[in-house]
Design a protein that fits this description.
Helix content: under 10%
Strand content: 35-45%
Number of helices: 3
Number of strands: 24
Largest sheet: 9 strands, mixed
Shape: globular
Number of domains: 2
Distance between the termini: 30 Å
Radius of gyration: 20 Å
Order of helices and strands: EEEHEEEHEEEEEEEEEEEHEEEEEEE
Length: about 300
């Protein structure tokens, strides 16, 4: 991980105290993953893996805010700072360079180490909700690019085309001049920040309970309680917030007839659980999810670390 102090592990020697907590988050899962329409743009968006390779380092030392509420964005009368990014990681470039793959789960993504300010308004509430698994908190990246360095995802060809290359993919509102997304191959167009590999700017990162990128998430949180007893919110508590009942998930097919996806119905943090001769042990570090298979009246069990969230 590219970190301010050169740490080689997610937290390194960083220790939480009364004023600072630390967390690890992942986001910007590359194409063929893409985000749902957000409130700012109103359209689906994604990133070529090469764009992320060229741009991820720019996140180092960028600010973290609450729900994109910043005076500079004209979304708030005051700034709502929550912390700063102190470490960034992205996979090494494979031989032959980055290409858009077939698998959503195998696509590369950005991981960051967050320093969170416990004196910031709303931070104690966030840490309490995550620790008790009462609320699902995630992250949402802020991105800046130009139209000339952007593009449209072409799924069947696994490439990013120029905005004006495909008829009907992108339209312009004659009154406002704003882009309006059309369709590509019969589905809503996916706008690609950075096009087919241009770098982009990342102004900051937001903590949010309503992320457009459903595969983004907070993996681990390390905090110290006010009475100075260590409170560690591990991947288990992250799983509690990432995999609440009703969340759609997918996994690699491992059994004949297994649909590879479904909806979380229940989360178990202890004990042994069995369905269809599959017995799993749930722990705080790795809870067991009961999942209703897509299109089938069947429930299966999966460990939280073996599945990933999906928009579908």
């Amino acid at each position: 991980m590219l970190a301010a102090g050169g740490e080689s592990t997610p937290f390194g020697d960083l220790q939480p105290d009364k004023f600072t907590a630390y967390g690890v988050a992942h986001f910007c899962h590359a194409l063929p993953n893409f985000s749902q329409p957000d409130s700012a743009s109103g359209y689906h968006s994604g990133f070529h893996p090469e764009t992320l390779a060229k741009s991820h380092g720019r996140l180092l030392h960028k600010h973290i805010n609450f729900n994109h509420k910043m005076k500079a964005y004209q979304t708030s009368a005051t700034d709502n700072f929550a912390g700063a990014i102190v470490g960034v990681a992205y996979p090494e470039t494979p031989e032959g360079g980055w290409q858009i793959g077939d698998s959503e789960s195998d696509a590369p993504y950005i991981t960051v180490l967050m320093a969170l300010f416990k004196l910031a308004q709303g931070m104690p509430k966030l840490l309490g909700e995550m620790g008790a698994a009462r609320q699902q908190w995630s992250v949402s990246v802020e991105t800046e690019t130009t139209r000339g360095e952007s593009g449209i995802f072409v799924p069947s060809e696994k490439r990013v085309a120029a905005l004006n290359e495909i008829d009907g993919a992108v339209l312009l509102d004659p009154k406002s001049g704003k882009m309006v997304m059309g369709q590509v191959e019969g589905k809503p167009s996916v706008f690609c920040f950075g096009g087919d590999g241009n770098p982009v700017l990342f102004p900051g990162l937001a903590l949010t309970t309503n992320p457009a990128e459903l595969t983004a998430g907070i993996e681990t949180m390390r905090a110290e309680s006010m009475d100075r007893d260590d409170l560690v919110v591990s991947r288990a508590s992250a799983a509690a917030s990432m995999f609440l009942p009703g969340i759609p998930v997918k996994w690699k097919k491992i059994l004949m007839g297994d649909s590879g996806g479904g909806i979380v119905k229940q989360v178990y943090f202890s004990g042994e659980h069995e369905k269809h001769r599959c017995r799993l042990t749930a722990t705080e570090e790795n809870p067991v999810l009961e999942i209703a298979l897509n299109g089938k009246p069947v429930h299966v069990l999966r460990h939280a670390d073996s599945v990933y969230r999906t928009a579908k």
